[in-house]
Amino acid sequence: MGRDVRLADALKQIAPAGWRGFGKSEIAGSFDPNKLVNWRGGRPWTDVLDILANEQDLSVEVDWNRRHLYVGKRDYSAPATAVAAASSVPRSAAAPTAAPYQVKQVWTAKAGSTVRETVEQWAKTQAWTVYWPMQDLDYRIVAPLTFDGSLVDAVSKLTLLYESAQRPLAVGIFVNQKLIRYSEKEAAQ
């Protein structure tokens, strides 16, 4: 939890150790890293980041491979998605109205399927592209799995399950391009 924390410090506090934040060129001059903000934890860090970004009218792209956060202006022309870009339905300048009820999206992975098959199936439902260049790296899902949230949330959570595998997976999620890019995670040096 952070109360009256500089925005730049809040981003550092929310992201796990080893992550770095960068401002996109589009926000140069309009981004105030010294703006005081409040944030509350108690949920996955990507959710906390999403909430903070929405409150500050920002988008945040998460590069899972490099462990980088890219802060930019919220793109109101893009469809609403959560996490990697941390975007949501735009706020209207008109009088506030009751928010529409949103059905929680549920993603299931069947026992016997592979991570690649599962992610490709999920991505297809949202018109996303999956790039999986490794021909010799995939993992069989041994028990049924269920995730809720956005496609980005589900892909991120599924991938985290394999971070301690002999050959861990890494995923880069590029919301603006609707691209999910897998690779073999590089060994820590």
Q: What is the 3D shape?
A: elongated
Structural class: alpha/beta
What is the percent of helical residues? 10-25%
CATH fold name of the largest domain, please? Phage tail protein beta-alpha-beta fold
| Number of beta strands | 10
Report strand %. Answer: 25-35%
Q: Which runs of at least 5 residues are low in confidence (pLDDT < 50)?
A: 78-103
The DSSP helix count reads: 4
Order of helices and strands: EHEEHEEEHEEHEE
The separation of the N and C termini measures 32 Å
Mean pLDDT: 78
Organism: Xanthomonas citri pv. sesbaniae
InterPro entries: Pilus_synth_Q_C (IPR018927)
Domain Toxin co-regulated pilus biosynthesis protein Q C-terminal: 105-183
Protein name: Toxin co-regulated pilus biosynthesis protein Q C-terminal domain-containing protein
Textual characterization of the structure:
This is Toxin co-regulated pilus biosynthesis protein Q C-terminal domain-containing protein. InterPro entries: Pilus_synth_Q_C. Pfam families: TcpQ. The structure is a single chain. By secondary structure, the protein is α/β, with parallel strands linked by helices. It has two domains: 84 residues, Phage tail protein beta-alpha-beta fold (3-Layer(bab) Sandwich), CATH 3.55.50; 79 residues, Phage tail protein beta-alpha-beta fold (3-Layer(bab) Sandwich), CATH 3.55.50. It is built from four helices and ten strands. The strands form four sheets. Strands 2-5-4 form a three-stranded mixed sheet, with helices on one face. It has a three-stranded mixed sheet with strand order 7-10-9, covered by helices on one side. α3 runs antiparallel to α4. The protein is elongated and about 50 Å long. About 14% of the residues have low confidence.
